[in-house]
Amino acid sequence: MATTIPRLCLLLLLLFAAGMLGPGTAHAANVVCSTNGTPTVNFGSSSTAQGSIGYICTNYTTSPVSFTLCAGIGTPSYPGTPAQPLMQGNGATLAFNLYTNPSNTQVWTTANPLTTPVTVGGGIGTPISGTIPVYGSLSSNQSAPAGVYNASFFNTVLGQLVGGTCLAVPNNGIVSGLDFTLTVQANVVSACVVSASPTLSLGTVPATATNLSGTTTLQVTCPTNTSYYVGLRPSNNSTTGAGVMRGTGTNTDTVSYQLHSGSATGPIWGNTATSTSAGNGVAGVGTGNVQTINVYAATFSADVTADTYTDVVTVSVNY
């Protein structure tokens, strides 16, 4: 009989030990959350963007569960840094930042995660889904060639906010989340902008004046390495830059003029430029910054009725 007592005691001790270990499973999450869809922020060709992180959370208890769901930003892809994320494309980079608010004033960082309150209904297997918005803005005054630019944020966290920190599997938390990769994309298009000084003046001259000329400037801004071709068209639709200035009121006199590039006696500047050829226009290659181009006009005679003579020239930038 004495030999059986240790065995019984040993068995009881094992059962007791197993009973002590069993409640450790109570630390398992009551709610499991995962991403729903592909988390993406796509700028398209805009300088700002709004993306979203879709989520689905499933309750594995019989009671409703409320908590703060969060998304903690991950590690940006090379060559970006947490302080300055960068997209890469076409041999260049594009600086941007992601924000937690639509006015783009609160940068999304590990210390400032995205958050949203969530309540999952009671009942084992009960799900709830939704999205957490995220906002983006490209840094200003950038010079980037046209093309598609991409970046990623690795090990971005979807989890529970505990003590101001976003954790995928927090200690003593009620949510089990996960790490995921957030992608960011932008499409830089070859958009050019042109402006012109308001007037090309030949001055106030006597009727006996000949061989008059004047100059003004155009300002063209095109993305880096974008070829562009500038054409000039007088109001008479001349393709060779040969225009006519007209007087005011009932004055029927006109003053003929010719547009030139380079100088007042340089090549004629007309409007046969296309998106692939300068024709009789002027060619350039964008730098991302403002480029100034001089325009010249010349007339051979001012032997007309005293008046103010004007014309309108249309500037076309083809790219």
TrEMBL record:
Pfam families recorded: SCPU
Domain of life: Bacteria
Protein name as catalogued: Spore coat U domain-containing protein
Signal peptide region: 1-28
InterPro entries: Spore_coat_component, Spore_coat_U/FanG
Keywords: Signal
Annotated ranges, domain Spore coat protein U/FanG: 32-150, 180-315
